[in-house]
Amino acid sequence: MNQIWNHLDQNQPPSPEAVSASVGSPLWDALCRFAEEQFGAKPLFEYSRCCVPGWNLKYKKAGRSLCTLYPMKGFFTALVVIGERERPETELILPTLTPYLQTLYRDTKTGMGQKWLMIEVREEAVLQDVKQLIAIRRGAPSLSRGKK
User: Biased composition, Polar residues: where in the chain (predicted)?
Assistant: First the structure.
């Protein structure tokens, strides 16, 4: 559950600093910096009523979603959607990803040609996996070919 973020005012998004302090993980800041600096993506806070209700942070570039981040206490969940276009490259690098990500990918059902990967980011190695998947979404092969 999104712990505290679903109890905040739906009309007033939290500040990036407040979210960072509440998550309390340097991995959150590292992924935000990566999306912003590497791809020029702008953060957008949105209030969601879906399966993870509360405030989340979306990164989009050129009209395409790169990822959605769901802040939790001490960690966060990153949603990365792997579509038909990203599938071949993702499956090519899959053996280089963490066992956690390999299992998550295999166990996530495909719907309408997409896998919606809800990735719990609690350690650096998983953060690197997420970065590679985002690079694939953005079409940046130099970042996604097994480089961490």
Answer: 1-12
pTM here? Answer: 0.88
Of the candidate CATH numbers 3.30.1460, 3.30.30, 1.10.3470, 1.10.8, the domain formed by 16-144 belongs to: 3.30.1460
Distance CA 19, CA 24 (A): 8
Which residues of the chain have a pLDDT value below 70? 1-9, 140-148
CB 115 within 8 A of CB 123: no
The domains of the chain are located at 16-144
pLDDT at 139: 84
Helices (H), 1-140: 16-23, 26-39, 87-93, 99-107, 124-138
d(CA 141, CA 109): 25
How many helices and strands, by DSSP H and E, does the chain display?
Answer: 6, 6
Whose tokens are 């071949």? That residue is 88
